[in-house]
Amino acid sequence: MRLTRRTFIKTGASALAFPTIISRARSQGVKQLQVGVYNSALGKLIETEVIPKFEAEFNCRVFTLEGVTLTNIAALRATRDTPRYSVMMMDDVGVPQAKQEGLIDKLDPNKIPNLAKVYPRYIFEDGYGVGFSISSAALFINPQVTKPIKSYEEIFDAKYRKQILLNTPKNTQSVLMLIVAAALVTGKPFKEAQYLVDKGWDKLASLKPNVLTIYDSEAQVLQVAQGQATIGGIEYSKAIYPHTAKGVPLDMTFPKEGTFTGINSMTLVKNAPEPELGAAFINRVLEPSVAKMLSERTLSAPSVSGIDFKPEIAKFLAYPETKATDLGLFTPDWKFIVPRRGPWLERYNDVFTS
């Protein structure tokens, strides 16, 4: 979490961090909205391109907390008794947990009319969260030297010895590789294999000779472009396609077993100080013109229907719904997985580091 021009973080001294702004806002009757955003390029776009216009239209001041899913949920826990935030962004993996802990409220379609434009697959937990920026998740290659991977089974071939970059167990993507291993062993689709992870451990261990390194930073994906590795993943397209668009020899490859999702989402905080303004903010991010801008700048798909993209942008997006279906786009059952994730990833780490 870090401070920006619009960031307000509550610490022992932070009550005095913006005395002039807060005093002026109160004296003029200007409402204040505190929003948790992503500490990423997407979060920066929202801060610079969305928030200023929203502030002007709604005569308010918006303060942002930058973080990732876990830190944003932690911020909600820390302020449960004295709610400070009205909107909190988190990945779809965090929505079931936040709902279960009573940290978020159900979204009201009457106050967020753009919800009606969202594809149903991106509305989570019976309306407690809504996706707004969707990445595909699969393998990546250097298309100048490697043909597209037709099946995940290929990466277990001995010809790829010490040529594969594998995502760190610190990241959610590592869980996706567990599902892949279970699917290959059982012959089940991802939707069923996610409940059979324990059957895939031996298969996963057989990948170890092919693993060059476990990577934990986005910069390391460039090792594939530079020829130091042949295949990488599982990774989100938002980490690959911006390089592709700049001419770097990197591209996603989607095996026949299917493609996972990485979904940036929004939630309305339970007992939010500004619930009406918070709902308006969520509605603004879901506005088709805003959704289109975010997609064009991040090369991640929008969740709302009816948007047209130029071919040079459309080729990167799992959009519209028909293309998402053709890719076999699959969102795991995070309500089932999250309680088991800790032991799974500990074992994953043991497999590849022992």
Terminus-to-terminus distance: 33 Å
Helix and strand composition category = alpha/beta
SSE ordering: HEHEHEHEEEEHHHEHEHEEHHHHEH
Q: How much is the average pLDDT?
A: 91
Large-scale geometry: globular
Strand content: 15-25%
Unreliable spans are: 1-27
Total strand segments: 12
* Radius of gyration over all CA atoms, rounded: 21 Å
Tally of alpha and pi helices = 14
Reported for the largest beta sheet, the result is: 12 strands, mixed
The percentage helix is 25-40%
Task: Give an overview of the whole structure.
It is a single chain. By secondary structure, this protein is an alpha/beta fold. 36% of the residues lie in helices and 19% in strands. It has 14 helices and twelve strands. It has helices spanning 19-27, 41-58, 69-78, 95-100, 173-186, 190-193, 201-205, 222-225, 241-245, 275-285, 288-298, 311-314, 321-326, 334-353; strands at 31-38, 60-67, 87-91, 104-105, 123-124, 129-141, 164-167, 211-215, 231-236, 251-253, 259-269, 329-330. Strands 1, 2, 3, 4, 5, 6, 7, 8, 9, 10, 11 and 12 form a twelve-stranded mixed sheet that branches. β1, α2 and β2 (60-67) form a beta-alpha-beta unit.
Detail the topology: elements first, then pairings.
Elements (H helix, E strand, L loop, with lengths): L18 H9 L3 E8 L2 H18 L1 E8 L1 H10 L8 E5 L3 H6 L3 E2 L17 E2 L4 E13 L22 E4 L5 H14 L3 H4 L7 H5 L5 E5 L6 H4 L5 E6 L4 H5 L5 E3 L5 E11 L5 H11 L2 H11 L12 H4 L6 H6 L2 E2 L3 H20 L1
Parallel strand pairs: 1-2, 1-3, 7-8, 7-9, 11-12
Antiparallel strand pairs: 3-11, 4-11, 5-6, 6-9, 6-10, 6-11
Helix pairs in contact: 2-10, 2-11
